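Sanity check

After download, print the first record. It should look like this:
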Amino acid sequence: MLDRHAHYVRNILNFHCFTERPDKFPVNASSFGCGVKLSWQPPPRKGCPVTRYTIHYRKSTLSGKGNTTWQTKYMEAYHHNQQLYQLWLECSQAYDIIVLGWNERGHNDIDHDSMVTVTTESGKHLLSLEKDNSLSILLTTPQGNISRYHDPL
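Expected structure tokens:
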């Protein structure tokens, strides 16, 4: 009897999550040069924290000319507060983006509201690795304006 009880307790302790998959969460997307800045608040933990995110993106199909193949980026959930990510994409393009939160039970549900569409700015971008190992991104617009974005690696 004691062995059966110990086996039952051991099985419970090996299973870390007692709740369901993460809840849906809103994603904020804004164009940033030829890229897109993404931010979101992780869903409530409910006893089973989000351990990673997948960011899915494609050229938007709203115009009828987009791509139905999704590209995926993987991101570990390092912080339990706001998450940030930046995608470097093509200039002057509309993109559909979906962010999924994953825990031990799976990912949040996907519906029509899960996808955001954002258009990147026009221009061309150039990447430059600086002496301090930071990354500089130069965006030149058709009007000749130059914007410099500096990102530490």
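If your output differs, re-run the checksum step. Summary of this record's structure: The first strand starts at residue 27 and ends at 32.
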